[in-house]
Write a structure and sequence with these properties.
mainly alpha; about 65% helix
Length: about 110
């Protein structure tokens, strides 16, 4: 069973990552904005580059949102006292596994299928 300080360390890592993701999201907001297609100021290739950059920024934002959801779920498990236990079988998840990624909800056996 995880010790209180180990759970606190996982919580701190989750909160730090969540804050970092929020900062990345704010920093990339302009890249996800609608691309203006003013043909007088930008050539065709530049518009295509801008559209491609926008699409990549939007895909990155979707991945970031997925990670934020996993972080929120892990924080909820901590608050509910269920952190560190596999959601499928109820067995303990190893500390090394949780240190690697504290958002993991399953043990190695259940993750392998």
């Amino acid at each position: 069973m995880l010790k209180d300080d180990e759970i606190a360390a996982c919580r701190a890592a989750l909160l730090a990552e969540r804050d970092g993701l929020a900062a990345e999201d704010m920093a990339s907001a302009d890249n996800r904005a609608t691309v203006t297609l003013d043909q007088q100021s930008v050539g065709r290739l530049s518009r295509m580059d801008a559209l491609q950059q926008q699409a990549m920024a939007q895909a990155t934002a979707r991945r970031r949102q997925g990670r934020e959801a996993r972080i929120a779920a892990a924080l909820a498990r901590i608050d509910e006292g269920e952190f560190g236990f596999c959601q499928d079988c109820g067995e303990e998840i190893g500390l090394k596994r949780l240190t690697l990624d504290p958002t993991l909800p399953t043990c190695v056996s259940c993750a392998q299928g």
